[in-house]
Write a structure and sequence with these properties.
By secondary structure, the protein is mostly helical. The protein is built from eight helices and no strands. It has helices spanning 12-31, 37-49, 59-69, 72-95, 102-125, 133-146, 148-167, 176-196. It is globular, with a radius of gyration of 18 Å. The model has no long low-confidence stretch (mean pLDDT 87). Keywords: Membrane, Transmembrane, Transmembrane helix. The chain crosses the membrane at residues 20-48, 75-98, 104-124, 144-169.
Length: 197
């Protein structure tokens, strides 16, 4: 671990925290068109994964990688994610309209939506998402079943980010940074456990 240099106000851990927040803000900006959200999260995870390999974690590097990788497959993944979110919202709205069996349907729809969100987020954290979304989603689906603890951590990270954004709206623009850090940590944890087997 690097020690504090002369004239440095904060230690290396605080520097990483600041870098995570700057990448989170850059990710929020990149997610604004909505269909770019999966590519934005995937790129943020790749940039944060680079911190373990002594690569710079900066918003400039983030935008450079994002510009290099935006392609039709990324936009298609964003369109699928957006369509799934809209379908879930419509299903929950119909369940709230008082249809027969609505409470059971709402629970089932929320469970399916939560599982799909975990698979999607874990796919964004996988290195394969930079080049091939199908492989990343297949691997993430296997991870959800094989690594239940990691999936629980992903759900906790999403809940924490949502709670922070709900409590103080300006935090919504910083929330993607800690969320992608958590996603990256869960994926690195999975990779390390797989290499030990």
């Amino acid at each position: 671990m690097r020690t504090r240099e002369a004239g440095e106000v904060f230690g290396p851990r605080m520097t990483l925290f600041a870098d995570v927040l700057s990448v989170g803000l850059a990710t929020s900006v990149a997610c604004l068109p909505l269909v770019t959200a999966p590519a934005a999260l995937s790129t943020a995870c790749a940039v944060l994964r680079g911190a373990g390999q002594d690569r710079p974690v900066t918003a400039g590097r983030y935008f450079l990688l994002l510009r290099q990788r935006l392609r039709a497959g990324d936009l298609l993944a964003g369109a699928v994610a957006l369509a799934g979110l809209l379908l879930l919202a419509a299903d929950l709205a119909l369940a709230g309209a008082g249809l027969p069996g609505a409470p059971l349907f709402a629970v089932a729809a929320a469970t399916i939506g939560g599982c799909a969100a975990v698979v999607g987020l874990r796919a964004c954290a996988r290195p394969e998402s930079l080049t091939d979304w199908r492989t990343a989603v297949r691997g993430a689906a296997r991870d959800v079943v094989a690594d239940v603890g990691g999936s629980g951590l992903v759900l906790l990270a999403v809940a924490t980010a949502a709670l922070c954004a709900w409590m103080l709206l300006p935090l919504a623009f910083l929330a993607p940074g800690p969320l992608t850090l958590a996603l990256t940590a869960v994926d690195v944890r999975r990779s390390a456990a797989a290499s030990l087997r």
